[in-house]
Here is the input.
Amino acid sequence: MTRVVQKYGGTSVASPARLRRVARRVRDAAAGAQVVVVVSAMGETTDELIALAHSVSTDPPSREMDMLLSSGEIITAPLLAMALEAAGTRAVSLTGPQAGIRTSRAHRTARIVDIVPQRVLDELDAGKVVVVAGFQGATEELDITTLGRGGSDTSAVALAVAVRAQRCEIFTDVSGVHTADPRLLPEARVIPVITYEEMLELAAAGARVIHPRAVEIGEAYGMEIRVRSTFDEHPGTTIRSVANANMEERQKVRGIAHETDVAKVTLLGVPDSPGVAASIFGPLADEHIAVDIVVQNVSHAGTTDVSFTVPESDLRRAQQMLDGVAKQVRASGFSATADIAKVSVVGTGLRGTPSVFAQIFRALAEAGINIQMISSSEIHVTCIIDRARVRDAVRALHAAFELESI
Here is the structure.
């Protein structure tokens, strides 16, 4: 029998009425397949729990935060199982650890190291829909951990691999992966099929429809992922390997992504000598602060300025560390700004197409948008710009590559 894993995000299960709607969709799928369902916390529950934690502590311990935040999904899972039973479908709810998800010890940002899904498989063989609380797992010591924002996507794809599902379906509040964020640009179109590589770049650049780690797992194990809306019957977007096509016939640009949770830090007057970069970025890595774009200016008189971006949500922690880092590397100081954003152009067709770069920079220049930093790979070009101009930049680039007509 076909086996499918479905994941439903917070907006999809935000109320009892929506839970009942999801239950009907799952019931229909279970008529012809074994179904595992992974759920997120209802609505804004996670944000509310974070706010609650900070109302009692200015610096809540990460382990206790994981214990608290994991409760959101643990509430959703049994509620959906109840709704399924009420709809006439046998169901059982499991926490992440009960489903066999084992993780690293990095609280708030744990990674899945293994899944032993025997309990899930046994319940499927007993004819039940298995509803699993996403976003969570447990260490070898049975401490509860969470997988970071978007972690339920990762739970779903990893479980799909572990139970040998035919596909993983990610249900959300949009009809699929779009050429740009449809909430920012209504004329954006759904992309019917996209490669893992392109989707990974879009997700990493800010397209929040699916978490990058989920795409990485899908690519590593060849797990087909479908992104669909809970609220309509649109077929959505399929993420999979795509047979090589003639480069001249391929869509050079597949989508425009943007991210506003961005801040820029500049270390001033850094000695231009071996080992300095490691001394700067090593402590940030130890604190699990993700660094994105890095730019080092040309050295003058033996010193240089080093700029890099971090999530704005991590800026306060980064600044607390940088006083010590600046002294250690004998920098003259540092500055930080959070009024920036990044906009990215993504597509495998960028390879070997220099005209695309000129087209990007021309479109932004004609819109009067200044570029502060640039990063590129074979399939993306990312520009750091003023945050206030994000909508203008996305619109200009979307129009420049005629993505509304794909």
Remarks:
- The first helix runs from residue 16 to 30.
- Residues 103 and 112 are 4 Å apart (CA to CA).
- The two ends are 36 Å apart (CA to CA).
